[in-house]
Design a protein that fits this description.
The complex is a heterodimer of chains A (about 110) and B (about 550). Chain A is an alpha+beta fold and about 110 residues long. Chain A has one domain. Chain A has a 5-stranded antiparallel sheet. The longest helix of chain A is centred in the middle third of the chain and has 16 residues. The longest helix of chain B is centred in the first third of the chain and has 23 residues. Chain B contains 19 helices and 20 strands. Classes of the chains: A alpha+beta (about 110), B alpha+beta (about 550). Chains A and B meet through α2 of A and α1, β5 and α15 of B.
């Protein structure tokens, strides 16, 4: 069996909340809107567990479009995506700092 | 303006109820995302980078004050207090919530608005010249035709599931301000050389996106009574023969290109000959009913020149600048079509706050027979303004940061939302627009440069029309970073042209400098009275390319 293609570790699981459309992140006990609370998977087993969690929430019509995003850990050990697109998803529009997660969570 | 009859009203209300039920089933898990996706798209609901986005149709860019006020209410109660006008003259709310959408659609239906066919593989919102009905150079008002096509194409059973989206524009003046050559199908009102009778030139196969192509003439002169039958024939040939194996080759432009215009025309004419015209073309009484909504408002008899305005201009340089750039020549003496720029210096092109919406609605009601327009350039227009009223309108616009005197100038930039909002984007476009706007903010500099267009897209889908900008900017991803390709020489109008690439992509911070270099070539080389595009046509790409190369080499 071919190896499952995943982004490089560590990773977090990102999706959109079905009802609100908000970007949400998987945690150890559900989902959060705050990117700093995202559960970081550091090995293949943990990454696979996140995938299962995403697929289940998708099937249960809780989230849409779950996928793994590779991150770096900042000085405080909090996850920051490596790609600029994913950074924008954790913050909100760069041209409107007054809206989105950057405003809601003062990131 | 057109008013819904009982059929329009019922159709929209039924659609709201239908979509409300689909949303309910999706939330309950009875519909999968795969099943729900095409349904929500048909109702203008996208899932974007940060949220759902709701795209509301503004048919041929026409709005009444009451409608804009309702949009302001929706912005405040169900979104984040602002909206974004697009190059298809629609309004997008960036922060919609799925659970609220049925309520929002109900509020829209209350003011004769909807989101039907603002997405999906169907005939999209029909656009027209934003100066329709008031332009000095108009042959005939394109709005009745646009409304006829809107009604005909709404939930058309044969054309609801096309191979790909289908965009139609209608122009009715000597000059094309509706960018008809960028459309799947363009309708141009023309007069027959011999009889003087008005009819239509039909163009087909235009489009931007990953494979930009200019529309070609399908029929030079179509008698007006045959319009719907002919469009039906063209769409049927496309629907049957267009490719469905590859999304990127499914637009009508590819079919026309692969078949050749002659062969495509022959197919359409063959189909047209087969169609029962009396059935397909609709009832002339219905056409007359529609046209009656677009008669001129009760104009006053006014002198050609307004002394009041002239005197106010003499005392106020800012007003004078506004008059010079934001007023368009009206067909009626003493009146003007006044453009409200949604391009404040350093702002987001096309964005408007709920307070600004209410301010503009008040102005439309008080000074423009309750009507306003949205242009594909992402600005608003008060189409029936007395020249005498311009100073007061200007003062009120200024109080709401809506009086930027830059229409048609270098800071009147078209930009898609780009990666700040859009899930398809490969790079941000708004910050590039803002940086350019700030770089060229000086009004004297803008006036010196004169007429020029910058158009920015955040991906190859080209919602920001970059191919047809005098200066076009395309945001891409290159080695994990945002990179911007610059083209020049594009033209959306009568001398339609696609821009040519200047060189390799640049990082965002180098774009303003590169544009400045390109503009400097024009300023140094232009002959008396020449616009940027005219100088480019005379000189060709070479001098601009070498000026660009200096920047590109440093950036490399």
């Amino acid at each position: 069996m071919a190896a499952v293609k995943r982004p490089p570790l560590p990773v977090i699981l990102v999706a959109s909340d079905l009802l609100e459309g908000d970007v949400v992140f998987a945690t150890s006990n559900g989902w959060t809107r705050n990117p700093r609370e995202a559960l970081v998977a550091r090995d293949d087993g943990a990454a696979q567990a996140l995938e299962v969690l995403g697929a289940t929430a998708f099937l249960r019509a809780k989230v849409v479009g779950p996928y793994l995003v590779d991150v770096e850990l900042d000085a405080e050990g909090l996850p920051v995506p490596r790609h600029y697109r994913e950074i924008l998803r954790t913050l909100g529009p760069s041209v409107r700092p007054d809206v989105g997660k950057q405003a809601d969570f003062q990131i | 303006m057109y008013r819904y009859d009982q059929f329009d009203e019922r159709l929209v209300r039924e659609r709201v109820a239908q979509f409300a039920s689909q949303v309910e089933r999706r939330i309950a898990g009875a519909l999968t995302e795969e099943e729900f996706l095409p349904l929500r798209l048909k109702n203008g609901l996208y899932l974007q980078l940060h949220s759902y986005m709701l795209r509301i149709a503004v048919p041929y860019g026409s709005l009444r004050a009451r409608q804009l006020r309702q949009l302001a209410r929706i912005a405040d109660e169900y979104d984040r207090g602002y909206g974004h006008f697009t190059t298809r003259t629609n309004l997008q709310f960036h922060w919609a919530k799925l659970k609220d959408v049925p309520t929002v659609l109900g509020l829209l239906a209350d003011v004769e608005m909807h989101c039907i066919q603002t997405s999906g593989n169907c005939v999209r919102n029909v656009t027209a010249d934003h100066f329709a009905g008031v332009a000095y150079d108009e042959i005939e008002d394109p709005r009745p035709v646009a409304e006829l096509i809107r009604q005909w194409s709404s939930l058309h059973p044969e054309f609801e599931w096309l191979g790909r989206k289908f965009k139609i524009a209608v122009a009715g003046a000597a000059h094309d301000r509706a960018v008809i050559k960028s459309h799947d199908l363009g309708v141009r009102i023309v007069r027959d050389g011999k009889t003087g009778e008005a009819g239509y030139e039909i163009l087909v196969g235009g489009g931007l996106g990953r494979t930009p192509m200019a529309g070609q003439t399908l029929r030079e002169f179509l008698p007006r009574e045959d319009l719907l039958a002919y469009i039906e024939a063209a769409l049927r040939v496309y629907n049957l023969d267009g490719r469905r194996d590859n999304k990127f080759k499914a637009r009508i432009k590819i079919l026309v290109h692969e078949t050749g215009i002659e062969a495509f025309r022959a197919e359409v004419e063959k189909e047209f000959a087969r169609i029962d015209k009396t059935k397909a073309n609709g009832d002339p009484a219905e056409l007359a009913r529609i046209a009656a909504y677009f008669t001129s408002p009760p104009y006053e008899s006014l002198p050609e020149v307004s002394r009041k305005l002239e005197e106010a201009q003499a005392k106020d340089v800012e007003l004078s600048r506004f008059v010079e750039h934001n007023l368009f020549r009206h067909k009626r003496k003493g009146y003007t079509a006044l453009t409200i720029s949604l391009k404040p210096i350093g702002g987001t092109p096309g964005d408007i706050s709920s307070d600004q919406m209410r301010a503009v609605a008040d102005l439309a009601e008080q000074y423009s027979f309750d009507e306003l327009r949205v242009s594909h350039a992402q600005n608003l227009i008060l189409p029936y303004v007395r020249l005498d009223d311009v100073p007061e309108i200007f003062a009120r616009l200024k109080a709401h940061d809506l009086a930027t005197p830059n229409v048609g100038l270098i800071t009147d930039i078209i930009s898609c939302p780009g990666l700040d909002y859009c899930a398809l984007a490969t790079a941000r476009s708004i910050p590039v627009a803002q940086a350019l706007s700030n770089r060229f903010a000086d009004p004297a500099k803008q006036a010196e440069i004169g007429e020029i267009s910058i158009k920015i897209s955040g991906c190859i889908n080209a919602c920001g029309h970059h191919h047809i900008g005098n200066i076009g900017i395309l945001g891409l991803e290159k080695k994990g970073a945002e990179s911007y390709q610059i083209t020049i020489g594009g033209d959306p109008g009568d001398d339609y042209a696609l821009g040519e690439l200047l060189g390799p992509g640049l990082p965002a911070e180098k774009v303003p400098e590169a544009v400045e270099r390109v503009v400097a070539v024009y300023l140094a080389e232009r002959q008396s009275g020449e616009t940027f595009i005219e100088t480019y046509r005379r000189l060709g790409l070479a001098p601009f390319k070498s000026a660009f190369k200096e920047i590109a080499d440093v950036a490399a």
